[in-house]
Amino acid sequence: MRIKMTFTDLNGQDVILPVRSTKYFLHYLIYNTFSEQMAQKLYLEGFPINGRKFKLFVFSDILEKGKLLRNKHISFGKQITFYFSSPLDNVLNDFGENAIQKKFIQFNALHLHLEKIFFEEEYVFSDDILAHTLSPITEYSTFEHNGKKLRYYYRPTESEFKHLIEENAKKKYIIIKQAQGMSVDEKAVKDLYLDIEPYRFSLKNDEKVVYFKGTVIRGYTGVYRLTGSPELIKTTYNAGLGAQSSQGFGMWEVWNTEVKNA
Description:
By secondary structure, the protein is an alpha+beta fold. Helix content is 29%, strand content 35%. A five-stranded antiparallel β-sheet has the order 5-8-1-10-9. Strands 14-17-11-18 form a four-stranded antiparallel β-sheet. A three-stranded antiparallel β-sheet has the order 2-7-6, with no helix packed on it. Strand 12 (140-145) and strand 13 (148-153) form a beta hairpin. Helix 4 crosses helix 7 (230-239). The mean pLDDT is 93.
């Protein structure tokens, strides 16, 4: 399930952010919207599986286009709008309720308060759907070279990209079930599958380089065809498609409810 939210500044200022800090800004805004207990739970503990911790939430880019300024800042005008999603009711409700209750959240000179909030209805997923990205999708592997850890970011046209997308979705599916107090049949999970194919995609236009807390992350926007188990497609809709979901990567919307043959 997801929420669409609009924030404005209490003093009527334009929302102006450094170009390289927009992801961090939303990440900061989200964690300061949660209750203290939920923020600590997600940030410090998360939901572990095989030595990794998942936060089980995802958020979009700022929906307003913004105007690039000369000082490497971007102005979004009087408001910013974005989506927040989580498959867990307690995470979603904590976020929504606190957004409504808090008078404002300060970020540098901004004092942001909630202007509008909309809770979307649940979507019923099929086994074949088109996904339009609301934030870039990223998948990577980490290697060691001369004692340093390096990341290789896969392109959507590479087979490993597809494999990692599927494995990530299965891990999230298992964790969601466990967090909801349900038992998980490992054999049944192995039988689930998910495939992703670029549908409307240009490497030149859809490759995005994003900065997050001093780290350069490469991701890809566009429209993708998702086929496979509806359970996994739903998982990626609610918890993010691919890696780095809780840093604002891999959020998507249904682009067209009737998939046509490409």
